[in-house]
Design brief:
Blueprint lengths: L4 E7 L3 E7 L5 E8 L9 H12 L4 E8 L10 H11 L4 E6 H9 L5 E6 L3 E6 L6 E4 L11 H18 L5 H10 L6 H14 L3 H6 L1 H10 L3 H25 L5 E4 L6 H11 L10 H12 L6 H11 L3
Parallel strand pairs: 1-4, 4-5, 6-9
Antiparallel strand pairs: 1-2, 2-3, 6-7, 7-8
Keywords: Kinase, Transferase
GO molecular function: kinase activity
Pfam families: BcrAD_BadFG
Length: about 325
């Protein structure tokens, strides 16, 4: 057993993951918990505290904590820092950052590139290794998040309510598919009240709406024109933001992706077409990116052998 280790945490809106890694890259421990985004998870602090208290089998030398909603420039993030430091103590060197930053580090193995992340929310993160990291989008569901799972779900439901208002026959088929996916009545005389009640009873409406993106993707794969149209619009937003990042940096960095929206073949193909190039396959997940940054923070040598060992350990996650 090693006498020191590093910790990496990837805290998103849906799930929080943590791994402890040895100096040779071996994964010593891993844990999963619920979401820890303080913007929409009332119990985020308890979730994060319990996870951190449970994860450390050996003394930690350094930790990288990537959390949704974190920014060192925002006063609201000080509470996130306090929660982490209260648990890990003063002897651990800690780097706090956003979850998308470690996702970009992982995707490009700490090299330059642009990550398009689209899950419940959406954000573009660009790193050229010469300037401070660049964020495009990531404004949250009230101000933006175009191309995200939430945006896709809202677009699908928008078509449903448009049909319920107008009763135009062209919208009936798609509305029926979405209503069935929600286990709601298809009859327009009953569907409206049922849909309003569905909204009322959701514990986390944003996540429930974002979950519809999977159904839209499935329908697109089956050739549904309305679903394809929604996903191609989502892809247009994401591709445009990647292009914005390139323009601001003045260089055509490679792009990669992360998040459930990019499980859609329609989205991947449309973004690829719009950018004129295929994405780089992500080399590691966000938790891998956090581990790389924590290892460097600890002063460890992060070479090919270390990364291979880490990849093997994370493949079981």
């Amino acid at each position: 057993m090693t006498d020191e280790a590093i910790l990496a945490v990837d805290g998103g809106g849906t799930r929080t993951r943590a791994v402890v890694v040895a100096p040779d890259g071996r994964v010593l421990a891993r844990r999963h918990a619920g979401g820890s985004n303080p913007y929409d998870k009332a119990d985020w602090a308890r979730t994060l505290t319990d996870l951190l208290r449970d994860i450390s089998p050996v003394p930690l030398r350094a930790a990288t904590i990537g959390l949704a909603g974190y920014s060192a420039l925002r006063p609201s993030s000080r509470l996130q820092e306090e929660v982490v430091r209260d648990v890990l103590g003063p002897d651990v060197t800690i780097m706090m950052c956003s979850d998308v930053e470690i996702a970009c580090i992982g995707a490009f193995a700490d090299g330059p590139g642009i990550l398009a992340l689209a899950g419940t929310g959406a954000v573009i993160w660009a790193e050229d290794r010469r300037h401070p990291p660049l964020r495009i989008g990531g404004w949250g569901f009230m101000l933006g998040d175009q191309g995200s799972g939430y945006w896709i779900g809202c677009a699908a439901l928008g078509k449903v309510v448009h049909f319920l208002d107008t009763r135009h026959p062209d919208g009936a088929a798609f509305a029926g598919l979405i209503l069935r996916a929600l286990d709601l009545p298809v009859d327009p005389e009953l569907a409206g009240e049922a849909l309003l009640e569905w909204q009322r009873i959701q514990d986390h409406p944003r996540s429930a709406i974002a979950a519809l993106a999977r159904e839209v993707s499935r329908l697109a794969d089956e050739g549904c024109a309305d679903a394809v149209e929604i996903l191609e619009r989502a892809a247009g937003f994401l591709a445009s933001q990647v292009q914005t990042a390139r323009a601001r940096l003045g260089q055509a960095l490679p792009w990669s992706h992360s998040g459930s929206v990019f499980l859609s073949h329609t989205v991947i193909e449309a973004v690829t077409r719009l950018l004129g190039e295929a994405p780089r396959a992500p080399q590691f997940s966000a938790i891998g990116g956090g581990a790389m940054r924590a290892a460097r923070l600890a002063g460890w040598k992060v070479d090919g052998a270390w990364l291979a060992q880490l990849r093997t350990g994370l493949s079981c996650d």
